[in-house]
Write a structure and sequence with these properties.
about 375 residues; mainly alpha; Glycosyltransferase; two-stranded antiparallel ribbon; about 10% strand
């Protein structure tokens, strides 16, 4: 049975212990039970801040606000002095570090930083193709790197709420226009007819002409990377929440149904849903946690019978994550969840704790306790 208060206390205790040790550092993934750090947060730094803000909301202990803000200087330096290091994941970084802060505390500095970051995100918009460019061209002349000029990835759907929020607080439509343009492009090309998702889709960056779907972190171009599918559930749900466009809600529901149908018997997904042979292949608890949090948001926008269905599915995922995959009985493990899978094709960050898995796990628990505002 789901004991939310027990789960909450587990999250609060481990996060406080980590915050006292991490200080202003930004955790990414674990090695031998200990988190590694990225100086400027990579694409994941915001999740640590968001986790601490969730802990504040669940406890009202101001320690967590200070822990969340301890690394702000890294986000500030990156945005204003190292903007070339940023990509489409600006929303993950500045939404969970600054938008969350502003929503909870009303901090105007956080709001200003977030809006400047939103300007940086819309600057990546390809007007011809109507998409936000995902990754940067790191190695000019290299075919893969050059392809990035026309690459979108499913992850970016979860960065769009950051832009919708920017329009909400400024009244400037430029942010929403980009978010809607990108969401429409993803709906048309990155979501397949069976409501599985490509990881990447490639366009001609100059003409906007669609070329093909690909993968980078999934098993194959035509497979279904489970974390990507979870990004789709949440991304399209929030697109609907901000616009009221029912096509987004329909996509979110269909993507959620696919995710649920393809779960393992214990309600935690494999790292890819279309593996030809599952034997010896890892799970991805981060995909399960992301999907659970996303389904709880989805449940707010559907009819009662569907609402109960998605809440029940989210609870089943959470119960399994906590009972079978958490570190609740492992004091030496710094992560909340074990068996995350960051990048299986490169054999990196496999079978470890992932800070975004921890964040979404905590978000789902906080949502069920009705203890959080929406950061997205």
């Amino acid at each position: 049975m789901l004991d939310l208060n027990e789960m909450k206390q587990f999250i609060l205790d481990k996060t406080k212990d980590n915050a006292m040790n991490f200080k202003d550092k930004l955790p990414f993934y674990s090695e031998d039970g200990k988190y590694t750090f990225n100086e400027y947060g990579g694409w994941t730094g915001g999740f640590w801040c968001g986790l601490n803000f969730l802990c504040y909301e669940m406890s009202k202990d101001k320690f967590y606000i200070e822990a969340a803000r301890a690394s702000r200087h890294r986000f500030v330096e990156r945005l204003y002095e190292k903007p070339e290091s940023l990509d489409h994941d600006i929303g993950f970084l500045y939404g969970l570090s600054c938008v969350a802060d502003y929503k909870i505390t009303g901090d105007e500095k956080a709001k200003k930083i977030a809006l400047d970051a939103a300007d940086a995100l819309i600057a990546r918009y390809n007007e011809t193709g109507k998409f936000i460019q995902a990754w940067n061209v790191r190695t000019p002349g290299d075919p893969f790197s050059e392809e990035n000029r026309g690459r979108i990835i499913i992850d970016c759907m979860y960065n769009l709420p950051f832009l919708f929020w920017a329009t909400e607080v400024t009244g400037e439509e430029k942010y929403k226009r980009v978010a809607v343009g990108h969401a429409d492009t993803c709906a048309k090309y990155i979501i397949r007819s069976d409501y599985t998702s490509f990881h990447c889709y490639i366009f001609d960056p100059d003409t906007g002409k669609p070329k093909c779907g690909k993968t980078y972190q999934g098993y194959a171009d035509d497979s279904c990377w489970s974390r990507g599918q979870s990004w789709a559930i949440g991304g399209f749900t929030y697109a609907y929440a901000y616009t009221g466009d029912k096509k987004y809600l329909e996509i979110a529901k269909k993507c959620a149904d696919v995710f649920i149908d393809l779960l393992e018997d214990d309600n935690v997904p494999m790292w890819d849903f279309k593996l030809p042979d599952k034997d010896g292949e890892p799970r991805d608890t981060s995909a399960g946690a992301t999907a659970a949090a996303s389904m709880l948001e989805l449940s707010k926008h559907v009819a009662d019978d569907e609402r109960n269905y998605y809440v029940d599915c989210a609870k089943k995922i959470l119960e399994s994550l906590y009972s079978n995959y958490s570190t609740k009985d492992m004091a030496d493990e710094e992560g909340l969840l074990l068996h995350g899978c960051g990048h299986k094709p490169k054999n990196k960050m496999v079978d470890c704790s992932l800070i975004y898995g921890d964040y979404y796990f905590a978000e789902a628990v906080a949502r069920l306790l009705d203890d959080t505002v929406r950061y997205w």
